[in-house]
Each structure stands twice: as structure tokens, then as C-alpha cells.
Amino acid sequence: MRDGASAVAEAIRGARRVAIFCHVNPDGDTIGSALALRLGLLSLGKEAAVFCADKVPDILSGLPGADGIRLLADFPTAPSFDLLFPVDIASADRLGRLNGLPAFEQLRALSPCPTAQVDHHGTNQGYCEANWIDGGAPAAGLLIYRLLQALSVPVTVDIASCLYAAISTDTGNFSHGNTNAEAFRVTAELMETGFPLTQLNRRLFTLQPEAQLRLTARAVESLVRRCGGQISMLRLSAADFEACGALPEHADTVVNRGLALEGAKIAVLVRQQGEQAKVSLRAIAPVRVDEIARSLGGGGHAQAAGCTLSMGVDEACEALLPLLARALDSQG
Question: Quick one: 237 and 123 in the same domain?
């Protein structure tokens, strides 16, 4: 195990009741990793619960144990845990908010105990007492797999299903530039359990609600290309979501449509959410978008990042364009 991993494993060994946390607007990696960890801890005779500030997206609701994920607002007010464990959460503020305030410090006050985390965001500064951060890992799910191995936890069909959801979604079904040999090796080992690969793949990557399909069509209709077609800009208004009967989660993968175009190196989706503009950025290596997101108060990975801007959709698009153009110029 790499630096930091031993400390995290030791923190788990010394805990009996573990609270596991997913990040806001949860994706397959944070949900799948958290659920796999919980199942592993249960097999060791420990108590474990998973909390998230937002509801589980529909495509992930069928994962083993997903129906037991509790809202962060339901975190017990009396001390109930002896380890707080964020998973795939690059910074403490990404846990969400409780009563309008950053949640992490409130959680530590409600349940004073050690903290440990596993994450694969290179920007993570290590806000827990025990930190295992591997920015080179394609998904947090791979780190959870290594952790479970170190804890001598047998990988069951249910654990394999959760880990596969984590790894496959964060690698774009093994198509993103972060995909490495370990992702394939671990997936092959997970397949040895006989988990329902075909059914899970269909749920994660093929099936979608009609509202999501109609929302994607509206985003594609908004397409504008800049810098000789190297930048694809998509946008969605509140009216688009209302007309399609769509939820915010239905826009999570829409930005990828912009990279499907020949010649595109950067794709941007700007969508209205209340009084703010939510920005999703994607790029094809060697072009990076994480530095842009970070300069605007967001974060993420080199080729997949995002941020939130306190402005309208059109204004956000205009503000982003020169930053994206400079990224193309500086990164070739």
C-alpha cells in the first residue's frame, strides 16, 4: 500500500462505528466506493452508514445498499460514530452544508472522533487526520479495492458491483485518458465474482429517462463552436429543465456530447441552477481544464472539472471563452 494507506487502514481497524460520506451531486465513483467500503466493513463485524447531502441519482439507485444511503441532514445529533470517512471528496466543502454552514466541522462537533479519507484528486490538501490521496488513480474505487484487500475483506458479488460502478463511470466506461492498466486488471478480478456485468452496464451507460434524452437534445441544439471548432459550448436554461421535466442529475453526462465532434478538444456545458451557473468542463489530453476550474473556485481532474459561477448562463459562457482559448494556446 502507498503512503497514507497504512494510516487509513489502521484508522479503520481501530473503529467500530464508521460514518462514510459521499460528495455533493454524487456520481458513480463516490457512491460505488462508499457502498463497497460499507459492505466490506459490515463483513468485518463493524457498523457503517453512508451519508450524502443529495439524493442518489436514479442510475445508481439499484446498486447494493444504495437504498440505505441517508441524507446528510439526518446525521444523528448524539455521538454515534468513532470514525468519519469521506470518500472521493477533494475538499471538505464538497461534503455539502448543514443548516447553511459547511458540514464537515459540524459533523466533527456532533461526533468528535478521528477522521480518515480516501481520494484520487491531486488537488486534495489532506483535510483529515489520516489521508490516502493518490492523484494518479483513475477512480477512488481502485483505492477502495486496495484498501479492502489490505483489510483481508473477500470481494463479494455485491462489493464487485459497487466497485465496478465506481471504476467504470469515472473512466467513462474505460474510454477517458485516465484509464490505465490497473483499471482493467482490477475489473478482470471483479468479473471473477460473476457480478451482473451486462445488466449493470446497461443501467449505467445505456438506459436513460425520456426527460434526460429530451434535455440532451436541447443542449445539442444550443451548440456553438469556437476557436475553429476546437471548443464546443453547450447551455441549458431553467426553462429547458422545466420543459423536459428533467432533474439536475439528468445533465451530468451531457457535456460529453460536445467532445464527440471531430476536431473538438474542449467541451463546456453551462446550466442554470437557481441564481447560479453550473459549469462542466471536459478536454482531450494534453489539454487541461482543471486549472481553469480551480481559478474560478472549482476543481476536478485534468480532463474533467467543474465550477459554479454567480452569474447567468450567457454571462458565464462569455467569461469562460477567453480562459478556454488561452488553455488551447498554452497547451497546444
Answer: no
Instruction: Round to whole Å and give the CA distance between 41 and 85.
Output: 12
Full domain range(s) for residue 140:
5-205
| Boundary residue ending a domain (152, 177, 205) | 205
pLDDT digits 0-9 by tens, 175-191: 888 999 999 999 999 99
* CA–CA dist 235, 219 (Å, integer): 6
191 with 66, same domain: the answer is yes
Structural Rg of the chain based on CA atoms: 20
Amino acid occupying residue 330: S
Sign of CA dihedral 27, 310, 258, 302: negative
Measure the CA–CA gap between 71 and 51, rounded to whole angstroms.
5
Same domain, 216 and 196: no
- What SS3 state is found at 222? coil
114 and 39 in a single domain? The answer is yes
Q: Is 171 exposed, middle or buried (0-12, 13-18, 19+ CB in 10 A)?
A: buried
Strand partners, 31: none
Instruction: Give the span between the Cα atoms of 163 and 188, in whole angstroms.
Output: 12
178/217 same-domain check: no
Q: Assign 3-class secondary structure to 154-207.
A: CCCHHHHHHHHHHHHHHCCCCCCCCCCHHHHHHHHHHHCCCCCHHHHHHHHHHC
Rounded CA-CA distance 144/108 in Å is 23
Q: Are residues 63 and 184 in the same domain?
A: yes
Residues 177 and 216 in one domain: no
> Which three-class secondary structure state does DSSP give residue 144?
helix
The number of C-alpha atoms within 13 Å of 67 and in the hemisphere containing its C-beta is 2
Phi first, then psi: what are they for 9, rounded to 5°?
Answer: -60, -40
Total domains, the chain: 2
Are residues 49 and 131 located together in one domain of the fold? yes
Angle at 136 between CA 133 and CA 137, to 5 degrees: 75
pLDDT (tens digit per residue) in 74-122: 999 888 899 999 999 999 999 998 877 889 999 999 999 999 999 999 8
